[in-house]
Amino acid sequence: MKSALQCVLFDLDGVLADYDRCVRVEHLANAIGSTPEAVHAAIYTSGIEEAGDSGALDAAAYLQALSAYIGSTVEAAPWVAARHAATRIRPDVLEIARALVDRVTLGLLTNNGQLMAESLPQIAPALFPLFAGRAFTAAQFGAAKPEVAAYIGCLTALGVAPALTLFIDDNLDNVEGARRAGLHAHHYQNLEGLKLALADFDLS
């Protein structure tokens, strides 16, 4: 067994939730009177999403950039509704998180922008109040995973040390970034693997 932990930090998409890009794109395209192709390009190939994730664009600037790229006004409400429609919480992983709440500090760190940070309770209501006050997006720290600054900023906000934190992410690059920042890290691939990783810290 490894040393005791004080914090377990979860990624959102691919760990706590399933995320469907197609649902998001189609939902938003329908809401703003655009095409799925235009919305997909704006979110996934234009670089706007990455700029939002890194904190280079605040929520208003991000929506303005999407609107200009698509040629249709993108307001916060349909954006949030589309992201909510595309996000399905995994009850089995959420059950594990709930079982940890009295033993460690729970946290969430996702590569997303300021608008996501402001809207997480509407986008993923099943995670609240469990993660209330401890759910963060990378943009809040001015750096996206796997940059070390994203993890350190998050842990500073949580008030815990990297060496006492286990980070869980389905993206191996993000896992390696967490390790460079001094955290323990688990590459999420399935529920059984997560249970074994937690058991290694006597958190089964």
Shape: globular
Instruction: Report the sheet-strand fraction.
Output: 5-15%
Tell me the span between the first and last alpha carbons.
11 Å
Query: Into how many domains do the coordinates divide?
Result: 2
Strand arrangement, major sheet: 5-4-1-6-7
| Corresponding CATH architecture of the largest domain | 3-Layer(aba) Sandwich
What is the CATH domain class of the largest domain?
Alpha Beta
The tally of beta strands, per DSSP, is: 7
Task: Describe the model.
- This protein has 204 residues and is of the alpha/beta class.
- It has 2 domains: 7-19 and 89-199, 3-Layer(aba) Sandwich (Rossmann fold), CATH 3.40.50; 21-85.
- The chain has helices at 21-32, 36-44, 48-53, 59-70, 76-85, 91-100, 114-123, 148-158, 172-180, 191-199, and strands at residues 7-10, 17-19, 87-89, 105-110, 135-137, 165-169, 184-187.
- α1 crosses α2 (36-44), α1 (21-32) runs antiparallel to α5 and α5 (76-85) crosses α7 (114-123).
- β6 (165-169), α9 and β7 form a beta-alpha-beta unit.
- The longest helix is centred in the first third of the chain and has 12 residues, at 21-32.
- The mean pLDDT is 97.
Compile the SSE list and pairings.
Layout: E1 7-10, E2 17-19, H1 21-32, H2 36-44, H3 48-53, H4 59-70, H5 76-85, E3 87-89, H6 91-100, E4 105-110, H7 114-123, E5 135-137, H8 148-158, E6 165-169, H9 172-180, E7 184-187, H10 191-199
Parallel strand pairs: 1-4, 1-6, 4-5, 6-7
Antiparallel strand pairs: 2-3
Helix pairs in contact: 1-2, 1-5, 5-7
